[in-house]
Amino acid sequence: MSRDERVGVARRAAGAGATLAVERFRTDLDVEQKNGKTDVVTQADRDAQAAVIEEIRDTHPDDAVVGEEEGALKSVPETGAAWVVDPIDGTNNYVRGIRTWGTAVAAVRDGDHVAAAINLPALGDEYWTDGEATYRNETPVSVSAEDDPEAAVVTPTMWWDFDARDQYGRACQAMVDRFGDLRRVGCAQAELAAVADGSLDGVATNIVAHPWDTVAGVAMIRAAGGTVTDLTGDRWRHDSVGLVATNGKIHDMLLSAAREIDAAE
After folding, report:
1. What is the pTM for the complete model shown?
2. The CATH number of 149-259 is which of 3.40.50.1970, 3.40.50.1820, 2.40.50.840, 3.40.190.80?
3. Which residues share a beta bridge with 245?
4. Per-residue pLDDT for 263 more than 80?
5. Which numeric CATH code is attached to 3-141?
């Protein structure tokens, strides 16, 4: 299947999950905890993932599917075609009635992204990339041109649980020390999409992030002209330690900040 065809599948699949999820948004949800009080799931997450996978299976019945909820692989295969799915990224926002959440679908081959879509239905935005360019609602977008750290806006992305709050604090401090301001959005794929369209100048974490939280957004940023590396400064991949994604112009400074997160107190 061509890259354009994979883009179409990614967009339809993300749309299917987002449509189901938005129908239940701001309704009476039964919220369950998975691995902690901040790690929550709803039946909408499970049903949205099923809707995404059903759309993918219509045209790619034999491809691997990597996803957050049960019934999907938890790591990206190194060879062959696969799809990386997050049915509701930003579930904590979703259950609180905050609009910043979405469904993300990325097509990968031999472990690397080739196309992706992020559908944020409560915001009315759909992002997608064919690997050559990134679009928001059919309009091409690009990373920002901001090169002044004191004017840049960045975010500490992903989540540091209660046993790692010292790292959370260092992440915020390292960024505040270097940059004009920071945001905490609560939806990793929305944050990455915001770097791709220039709304944010960079995001960073020191952890090994789940592929469903990252692969689609990383594809967006690279196609929009940005830079994404691990903590060593090497090209980021789905199993990298740390993720630093920027417009390229502030990358070295944000990389320096990210490296401080693990520093001894």
Report:
1. 0.96
2. 3.40.190.80
3. 203, 228
4. no
5. 3.30.540.10
